[in-house]
Amino acid sequence: MHHLPNPLIIATRESRLALWQATHIQAELGRLGHTAQLLGMTTQGDQILDRSLSKIGGKGLFVKELETALADGRAHLAVHSLKDVPMALPEAFVLACVPPRGNPHDAFVSNTYARLEDLPQGAIVGTSSLRRQVLLHHLRPDLRIQPLRGNLDTRLRKLDEGQFDAIVLAAAGLERLGLAERIRMQFPPEQMLPAAGQGALGIEAPARHGALIAALQPLSHPPTWLATVAERTISLALGGSCSMPLAAHAVWESPGQLWLRAAWGDPAGQRPLTQVQARAQVENTDQAQALGQQLADALRSAAGLGDSLP
Ligand SMILES: NCc1[nH]cc(CCC(=O)O)c1CC(=O)O
C-alpha cells in the first residue's frame, strides 16, 4: 500500500525546455494541492552532442537516467517531451498521464528568409532529425541538409553565427521558451507532418505506485492521450525506435472522429516519400491502437517495407 509522498519529487533533464516543462507540471500539481520539487539530471543524450541520436542509441538516452532516479526512489515521477519517450517502456514504469498538447507543428527559423520557398537553390538547412531531413528533401531536393544538435539555445546560436541559412525546430519548444518571435513560418502538416507525440508531454511513474498514478489523472487530457496513442502505435509497429524517418500525426475532425496521417521516407533520398492516412471513430485506447496498427500496416505495404525493418 502506497500513500502519496510529500513533497513529490519530479525528475527532469536540465535543458531550459525540460526545466520549463517540469516546472509547468510542478505548478499544475500545486493547483491540485500537491507540493512538488524538481530533481535536475544530466542525461547521456544531453552530453553526447557530436554524433546523431540515431547513431548513439536513440532518444531513449534522454529517458533512461531519469528512470534510474525513479527506480532508486530519488524521484517519484519524470516529465518528458512525449516525442522523446520510447513507445515500449521497461515493465517497471508506465506513462501515467499525457496533459493537453501544445503546438504540434514544426517551425521554419531563419534570419534572412521568411519561408522555405524563399531559400535560394542549394541553401544550407540545419536539422538532425531523420524525419525533417526526408520531408525537407521531398519539398526541396536542392537543399543541403546539415546536422544540428544541442538544446534549443545552442541550435539558435549556431543559426545566428551564420552556419545555416535556416533551421527547423519544434514550434512547441520555441513557444515554451518565449522564443515564438523566432518562428518565421509554421509548417502546415501537409508540408511537414509532425513526429508522433510532438508538442505533448508525458509523465512517467513507477508502475507499482497506484496512489501516485491516480493522483496524476486530473492532469490527463483524454483527446491528447488517444491521439498520441494512435501516433505512437505506428512508431511501435514500425520497430519501436524513435530514430526513424517516420512522421505520425492525429487530429480530431469532430468529437470522436480521429484523422491519422503518417509518412515514411528514405533517408538516402533514393525512394519517394510514402504517405498514408485513415479515419476512425475512436473513443478508447484500444480503438486508438487499432487505428494506429491499421495505418502502420498500410504504411509498411505502401513503402514496401516488408516484415523486417532496420
Ligand atoms: N528531439 C528534441 C526535442 N524533443 C522535444 C522537443 C520540442 C518539444 C516537443 O516537440 O514537444 C525537441 C526539440 C525539437 O524537436 O526541436
UniProtKB/TrEMBL annotation:
Domain Porphobilinogen deaminase C-terminal residues, every copy: 226-299
Span of domain Porphobilinogen deaminase N-terminal: 8-208
EC nos: 2.5.1.61
GO biological processes: protoporphyrinogen IX biosynthetic process
Reactions performed catalytically: 4 porphobilinogen + H2O = hydroxymethylbilane + 4 NH4(+)
Essential cofactor(s): dipyrromethane
Keywords recorded for this protein, A-Z: Porphyrin biosynthesis, Transferase
GO molecular function, one term: hydroxymethylbilane synthase activity
SUPFAM superfamilies, per the entry: Periplasmic binding protein-like II, Porphobilinogen deaminase (hydroxymethylbilane synthase), C-terminal domain
Enzyme class of the recorded protein, top EC level: transferase
Domain of life of the native organism: Bacteria
Note on how the cofactor is bound: Binds 1 dipyrromethane group covalently.
Membership in a protein family: Belongs to the HMBS family.
Stated role: Tetrapolymerization of the monopyrrole PBG into the hydroxymethylbilane pre-uroporphyrinogen in several discrete steps.
HAMAP family: Porphobil_deam
Additional remarks: The porphobilinogen subunits are added to the dipyrromethane group.
Stated name of the protein: Porphobilinogen deaminase
Organism (species): Allofranklinella schreckenbergeri
